């Protein structure tokens, strides 16, 4: 097991199936271009071999499939088939929900039971101006069908001043009424927002402000969360839970156990670091050759983690795997 001075190790792996996305969210894709994949993306089978090797070399326990938008990827089925027999405690998926209805049978058959659906607003016009793609009603229907099929749903919302702050209370009520857990993600200094501090500061809604706003609608209390959870969790008695991922206000670097594998075969130990480590060439090697080389790269990837706080990074979420 590879452990650093702070006792951190990699436990949770995020695999990006593709950098392409059918949205172009303003905070993620600055040029507004949709469906742009990275060159040289690996096959679903190669990425699955990467997962298998990382389970052995790093002690990965939980897998989250992400992107880009994983549900548009032609690699999804091959990847899900290839990871079917792996020793994982949990397989979940992050999606914008646009193709959820269509892909639900495939996800169910593969044993995916938990979904994070990104949804920043219930207002159709604001949805169009933030996501720059997709259709709100289709996402809501997809979540309803997934929930009815027994999937546990968390909704990810990035509150932004001037764009969707008026949606905090309505979206929270919508989620509470349906048993979805809403997670507010503080805007992160990624990509263009890492370069343009003013745009970042103008839009950032910090956790104290957010909690004050929620407190005007609901009484809530802190709830328990996993030791290496990135979200602070709150309970609204009798109604449900919500969470806040407070990268800026309450950094969680000290407990971070995440590792990311991009669709092109790069390992990222930290969102804040522009360091990355190529493992694509190890994936067609036999296990006894691949694992020692992988372990050397994992030591480097773990050393990339920030000591205390998220400082921001010029990499774009959809490329690393959000
Ligand atoms: N397409 C999928 C989706 O929409 O959930 C998965 C990829 S997306 C990059 C994953 C998450 O990253 C989304 O919840 C999105 O809101 C979040 N994200 C991207 N850029 C961000 C930023 N600068 N700050 C905060 N969250 C961001």
UniProtKB/TrEMBL annotation:
Protein name listed in UniProt: Radical SAM protein
GO MF term (any one): 4 iron, 4 sulfur cluster binding
Nucleotide-binding among keywords: yes
Annotated source species: Pseudomonas putida
GO terms under biological process: Mo-molybdopterin cofactor biosynthetic process
Gene3D superfamilies: Aldolase class I (3.20.20.70)
Entry keywords, A to Z: 4Fe-4S, GTP-binding, Iron, Iron-sulfur, Lyase, Metal-binding, Molybdenum cofactor biosynthesis, Nucleotide-binding, S-adenosyl-L-methionine
Xref: PANTHER family: MOLYBDENUM COFACTOR BIOSYNTHESIS PROTEIN 1, MOLYBDOPTERIN COFACTOR SYNTHESIS PROTEIN A
Cofactor annotation: [4Fe-4S] cluster
Pfam families: Mob_synth_C, Radical_SAM
SUPFAM superfamilies noted in UniProt: Radical SAM enzymes
Residues in Radical SAM core domain copies: 5-221
Transcription regulation as UniProt keyword: no
């Amino acid at each position: 097991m590879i452990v650093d001075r702070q006792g951190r190790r990699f436990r949770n792996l995020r695999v990006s199936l593709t950098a392409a996305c059918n949205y172009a969210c303003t905070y993620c894709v600055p040029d507004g271009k949709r469906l742009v994949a990275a060159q040289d993306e690996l096959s679903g089978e190669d990425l699955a071999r990467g997962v298998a090797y990382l389970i052995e070399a790093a002690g990965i326990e939980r897998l989250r499939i992400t992107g880009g938008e994983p549900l548009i990827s032609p690699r999804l089925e091959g990847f899900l088939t290839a990871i079917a027999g792996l020793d994982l405690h949990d397989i979940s998926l992050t999606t914008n929900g646009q193709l959820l209805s269509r892909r639900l049978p495939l996800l169910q058959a593969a044993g995916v039971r938990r979904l994070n659906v990104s949804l920043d607003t219930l207002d159709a016009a604001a949805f169009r101006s933030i996501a720059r793609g997709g259709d709100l009603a289709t996402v809501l229907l997809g979540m309803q069908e997934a929930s009815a099929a027994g999937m546990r749903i968390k909704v990810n919302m990035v509150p932004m001043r001037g764009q969707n702050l008026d949606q905090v209370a309505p979206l929270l009520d919508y989620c509470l009424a349906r048993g979805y857990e809403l997670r507010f993600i503080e805007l992160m200094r990624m990509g263009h927002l890492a370069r343009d501090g003013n745009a970042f500061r103008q839009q950032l809604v910090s956790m104290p402000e957010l909690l004050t706003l929620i407190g005007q609608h609901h009484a809530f209390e802190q709830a328990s969360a996993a030791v290496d959870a990135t979200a602070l969790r709150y309970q609204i008695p009798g109604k449900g839970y919500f969470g806040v991922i407070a990268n800026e206000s309450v950094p969680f670097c000290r407990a971070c156990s995440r590792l990311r594998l991009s669709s092109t075969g790069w390992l990222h130990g930290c969102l804040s670091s522009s360091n990355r480590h190529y493992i694509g060439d190890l994936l067609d090697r036999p296990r006894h050759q691949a694992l020692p080389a992988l372990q050397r790269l994992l030591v480097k990837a773990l050393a990339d983690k920030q000591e205390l706080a998220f400082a921001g990074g010029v990499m774009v979420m959809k490329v690393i795997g959000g």
